[in-house]
Design a protein that fits this description.
alpha+beta, two-stranded antiparallel ribbon, 2 helices, 38% helix, rod-shaped
Amino acid sequence: MADIDVVPKHRSNTWVWILLAIVVAAILIWAFAGRSRTTVGSLDSRPHVVAATVDAGVTTQLIG
């Protein structure tokens, strides 16, 4: 009988890095493209004070 050496194939993990790069690029595109331009006032999470004018001309402040 012949003596045949069995040598396992050397596997490359390049496809994992390519897939990871595609996923990261897709997440970045989604994060930056989906964001709408907002004004500075809309980023403020504090309650705003709104001035309401009554018929008599008296200005009252409503918190809302």
